[in-house]
Amino acid sequence: MPNSFLTTLVVDFKLIKVLDFEDSPIKHLPERVGNLFRLHYLSVKNTKINALPKSLGKLLNLETLNLKCSLVTELPLEIKNLKKLRYLAAYSSSLNRNYEGDVKIHAGFSSLMELQRLILVEVDFKELKELTKLRQLRKLGIRLTNGNKKDLCACIGNLEKLVSLTILLTSREEILDIESISPPHGLQRLYLTGNMKKLPYWIFKLEYIVRIGLDLSGLTDDPMIVLQGLPNLLELRLCETCHGEQLHFKEGWFPKLKILLLVDFKEVELMIIDKGAKPNLEELLIGPYPRLKEIPIGIEHLRNLRILKFCLMLKEICYMIKDKKWKKVTQHIPEVRVTFKKEGELFHVTTKYFLSLSPVNFEQFIEKWV
């Protein structure tokens, strides 16, 4: 895509309302993009763009700015002029974590009174105070770099329309103290990263919560024991939150759960699934579990399971496939897949492919890729 095309676009198509560059090879936006005064939607998702022109502040009709998986790390100061902006997203997702990356936002953004979605911005105590003024926010994601519990709790308590909340710290070792937060009654999604000894009591009172993601260090209790009773939970993501050798799902646990991601449980050697546990589960991702060598006991009880993924577990899945019970207990699952890395590149292989190989070819494959 030549630069001349972008220049022509912003010069000759002045009435354009939507610009969606997702997945395109562009590396910059022309400065004159600010002349597209009717622009409502701008997406540079998954591009190589690393900076936004200051003229962006002239797009007074812009409602959506999508920077997901781009290289943008800082928003121009002029962003505060976009009074009609409703959606601002800048983050990248990863195989293992809920969110990665964030952008720096400058003071003055509290003028964006129509903003409904703001994910993922880096904030300190000054920006927290500005956030309290954005009363229309429904989805908020922040990485807290310098703030205290009082500021954070006051901010969240004022945002009564929130249905999705993400709070990340700069590392999993920093203390995340949110016990005194009064979350919005209608909160549906919650993602947390940091260090805490115990889950806040108010999580168990979120009757409308459907998605939870926890990337927490320091927990002394298994969070699944307490989360399993949430009546409407549909999706659960846990990263490095289990430190025992056995992972046991008991009858009646997670009655409505459909998606379960259990990442980086380094100590787990055995997984047990009782009949009647997670009866509606459709997708299960586990791994890496370097000590897990046996097929999860009771996997055959998950009759609605459609996708089973073993993440970064090529060596471990080889032990399981060699077990005579493998075909019998997994035959009801349409897709069983393993991901693995080689020289930094990620590969995906179905276990059906493994089973199609002769014993000699199977061993050659493992020798090449492990």
Number of strands: 18
How big is the Rg? 23 Å
| Number of distinct helices | 8
Strand content: 15-25%
> What is the CATH first-level class name of the largest domain?
Alpha Beta
SS-based class: alpha/beta
Query: Biggest sheet, open or closed, and with what strands and sense?
Result: 16 strands, mixed
Instruction: List low-pLDDT spans.
Output: none
Q: How would you state the average pLDDT, rounded?
A: 90
Number of domains: 3
CATH architecture of the largest domain: Alpha-Beta Horseshoe
Fill in the CATH topology of the largest domain. Answer: Leucine-rich repeat, LRR (right-handed beta-alpha superhelix)
How far from one another are the termini?
39 Å
CATH homologous superfamily assignment of the largest domain? Ribonuclease Inhibitor
Summary of the model, kept short:
With 370 residues, the protein is α/β, with parallel strands linked by helices. Helix content is 17%, strand content 25%.
Describe what you observe in this structure:
By secondary structure, this protein is of the alpha/beta class. The chain has three domains: 1-76, Leucine-rich repeat, LRR (right-handed beta-alpha superhelix); 86-241, Alpha-Beta Horseshoe (Leucine-rich repeat, LRR (right-handed beta-alpha superhelix)); 250-370. It is 17% helix and 25% strand. It contains eight helices and 18 strands. The strands form two sheets. The protein has a 16-stranded mixed β-sheet that branches.
